[in-house]
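[Automated response] Your request has been received and processed.

Submitted sequence:
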Amino acid sequence: MDTEAQHTERDRSSRPSGTGYAPDPESWEGRSRFALAGRSTAWLPGGRYSLTLLLVLVGVLLLNLFVARPFEIPSGSMEPALRIGDRVLVNKLAYRFDAGPRRGDVVVFDGTGYFGDADYIKRVVGVGGDHVVCCDKEGRIQVNGRPVDESAFVHPGDRPSAVRFDVVVPDGRLFVLGDHRGASSDSRDHLGSPGGGMIPVDDVIGRAEAVVWPADHWTRLHRPDAYARVPAPDGAHG
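Generated structure:
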């Protein structure tokens, strides 16, 4: 028996092992796979190229719906950090797995029924249970009895607030202000409206993470340290 001939025959029919294997387009298996791919895209004008573009668009849509979305700044209410026309990236998963918005966060929310039929962007000043007062003898906003130095982000020349208020934020709601206090319609302007100007946490779309356009204004948005020493609501009321 010719053993060399037998080995040669087996080598012809064996497939190479490892990840580098690809079917030969001229083989029966290769022709079958390419035919299947061709049939799956035959109904789509442009074939595989259109299918690839369609899959990319679906991926972008899913990303926009569930993970992140751009938001265009419509007014100067958040100057100087955010200018009219800036695009910010909104993280829609920021509060999905934690305790929710924190003081100092810049959030985008649906203002329908509270501010108006649109999405808004403001800074969180008080969360559920907080006692927010304007203002102390030095003109500073107080949260749970602690004065907050907002000079790092409030528009230069603006007072912390020209409107006096003394509110306790209900659980599940937020007290929000614009950084450009003299040009912002926010919780202060809706104290007498349904909900008292407090935004439901459930209406928060996400947290603004960064300015992504224009390129020369790219910046990461950080939670300021101004609220770090604010005590918990229970401590303030105790």
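Summary generated for your ticket: The longest strand covers residues 204-213. The mean pLDDT is 80.
If you did not submit this request, please reply to this message.
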